[in-house]
Amino acid sequence: xxxxxxxxxxxxxxxxxxxxxxxxxxxxxxxxxxxxxxxxxxxxxxxxxxxxxxxxxxxxxxxxxxxxxxxxxxxxxxxxxxxxxxxxxxxxxxxxxxxxxxxxx
Amino acid sequence: xxxxxxxxxxxxxxxxxxxxxxxxxxxxxxxxxxxxxxxxxxxxxxxxxxxxxxxxxxxxxxxxxxxxxxxxxxxxxxxxxxxxxxxxxxxxxxxxxxxxxxxxxxxxxxxxxxxxxxxxxxxxxxxxxxxxxxxxxxxxxxxxxxxxxxxxxxxxxxxxxxxxxxxxxxxxxxxxxxxxxxxxxxxxxxxxxxxxxxxxxxxxxxxxxxxxxxxxxxxxxxxxxxxxxxxxxxxxxxxxxxxxxxxxxxxxxxxxxxxxxxxxxxxxxxxxxxxxxxxxxxxxxxxxxxxxxxxxxxxxxxxxxxxxxxxxxxxxxxxxxxxxxxxxxxxxxxxxxxxxxxxxxxxxxxxxxxxxxxxxxxxxxxxxxxxxxxxxxxxxxxxxxxxxxxxxxxxxxxxxxxxxxxxxxxxxxxxxxxxxxxxxxxxxxxxxxxxxxxxxxxxxxxxxxxxxxxx
Lengths: 105, 455
Description:
Chain A is α+β, with helices and mostly antiparallel strands. Helices cover 24% and strands 23% of the residues of chain A. Chain A has a domain at 40-46 and 65-105. Chain A has a four-stranded antiparallel sheet with strand order 1-4-3-2, covered by helices on one side. Chain A is globular, with a radius of gyration of 16 Å. Chain B is globular, with a radius of gyration of 22 Å. In chain B, strand 5 and strand 6 form a beta hairpin. Classes of the chains: A alpha+beta (105), B alpha+beta (455). Chain A binds chain B through residues 1-3, 5, 8, 11, 45, 48, 50-59, 61-62, 66-69, 71, 81, 83-88, and chain B through 59, 61, 75, 77, 79, 112, 114-116, 121-123, 126, 238, 240-242, 244, 247-248, 250, 253-260, 284-286, 288-289, 292.
């Protein structure tokens, strides 16, 4: 069902004039990562507190990448989670967190 | 539904809500165990136009601990997929569904089964068909045949079924959650001065004529046991960490690793022992973490309530509650299993790790149907709850009686239970379930059709 939210621009367009679109921001982030930003991986599939464990399905059916979802847990410290498929990576990148925060206004 | 809508978060997510788990040595197939995990509670049969189904976005699992550490040694994983043959119609079926491959069945579900042991996983079945929901004489004219066709043989042996069944858990929900009213004793209830009840009344099975979605698997005992015959069993449902509503495409998109959102071992633990403020946490954790909740088992709030709900009926229980002594009997029943020496000829102890699991001693033979007691071990039937759980066991009465002190003499022979403790019941039996249980796999009865059970 198509969105009827008239306040949102069409998908893929810039969020605000002169600023990065969501897709552009994430493409830039990925490129910056490849170029060697100071990204500290805090561990793939970071273990949650108290010892509970995550399970992924045995077949690879859901492991294929879909959208990439970025969760800025704490913009000040740069604590970021990135999700794709059934994977999760935790980063500490203040610059990236700041750019994402500016993109959303 | 000994665990249904039992926690705030899962009450909003019925597709991932585990309602019951059963584990028993198969009465008709010696040498095998049957594990049943039910989800999606309180299904009214007339569920159209979008009939109930498993979640394609949920990972359903049945876990087995066979070394007593409260961690899964074996996990059976079930992943579902829904296909719609013709998205241009609003119909679930466009004509009678007379086989699982009927072209008239428009929206259908299938599933994959895998088994995980340690770091390795193995696929046991792919694209296995679920039966449709039971609709009525035009849409599903021979429903038992459809359901029978959905019983599949797994790679390497074993049997599996996933689909709608009649709810087999009988309970007077309406009375019990009306401030602990047990209808057969409601004239003895304190009634808060309202004087509503003047005499006993028969129990009312709130789940009668309701359906549930059931995952059942039957495997050789040798597949699940480790060095000793007692195993721990529980079920979980997990969802991916992130869900986004893609408004442009009108669909949810999930991302990230799966995290547990629902768990069930022994009946009624998260339902009536774990407090509201901890229920969601409990659902997210494995049994190995249950030491965090042990206090709610050894000092159960419901046991403390019984004497005030029924004044003068439980003086011995009241004294026990006032003493502050921990209920080591309940800890044994629910968190460790009962060690050898407490009950002649019986044990289901898995070790000292406190973990809420159904504990099944697979070496105890099944009890012939004519000799079974729905009160399980309390009724002198060692093949019943808390030795695993059969579909007909009256777990409500068993746990009420245990909470009321019937089992405390196991750990303190000087304690005499109140006379009423051994009589507690909500007034129901397996006969309170209109759809008869089956004597063979998958054991739960034919689901109620919407046509004959419209409300």
